Hints:
- By secondary structure, the chain is of the alpha/beta class.
- It has 2 domains: 5-127, Rossmann fold; 145-207, Arc Repressor Mutant, subunit A.
- Helices cover 53% and strands 13% of the residues.
- The protein has helices at 13-26, 38-48, 64-74, 89-97, 110-121, 129-138, 145-150, 153-163, 168-175, 179-193, 198-207, and strands at 5-9, 30-35, 52-56, 79-84, 102-105, 126-127.
- Strand 1 (5-9), helix 1 (13-26) and strand 2 (30-35) form a beta-alpha-beta unit.
- The termini are far apart.
- The model is unreliable at 141-145 and 214-222 (pLDDT under 50).
Amino acid sequence: MSQVRLLLADDHRMFRQGLRELIERKTPFEVIGEARTGLEVLEQVDRLRPDILLLDIQMPDLDGIAVARQLATSHPHIKIVMLTMYREDQHLLDAIKAGVKGYLLKDADAEELLTVIGQVAQGESALDPALTARIFEAVRRPVERDLVGALSERELDILRLVAAGHDNRTIASQLHLSEKTVGNRLSDIFQKLHVTNRTQAALVAVQRGLVSPKAPDIGAST
């Protein structure tokens, strides 16, 4: 965790300074650079190779979504946390499709921001709690039975727990599986659903009617 390197991207200097001071004071992470425009982000990423990019969705030259799409191809290892003032569901959906790992409103408090950065640093995906329920509801669509048939019962069990927000350790405990097995099954689920991370899988699950927006815990069924 102490080796995690961050790049800050926002066109407001005072906001960047505030982020830098907060992160340097409250976390072991290293802020290695700042960028003011979308093009500067791409240049800084090429030069500095950060682990995490804190990226404003509204940037001069290239907006945050366009930057995220380019980095998903050129630097897929970089984890992006999108910061925004916008509450529109479509912005969140576009960000997830672009491959971002975290999405947070700028009016979130400092502890929420640090929690999201920490989760993303550990390889997890994180959404602003204020938006999660709304976006689950927004993406609901009629059931597509082909996707239901593509997943085994055990994969459906795992997917329901993922959609409920549980990590691999909890899923393994509830289903009497090893964490390695859960990880392998998740890889299979991602492939079958044509997604790349847990957040996308949960959204697709709700959209396709595989789980409800508030999926209940599942016992240790076989």
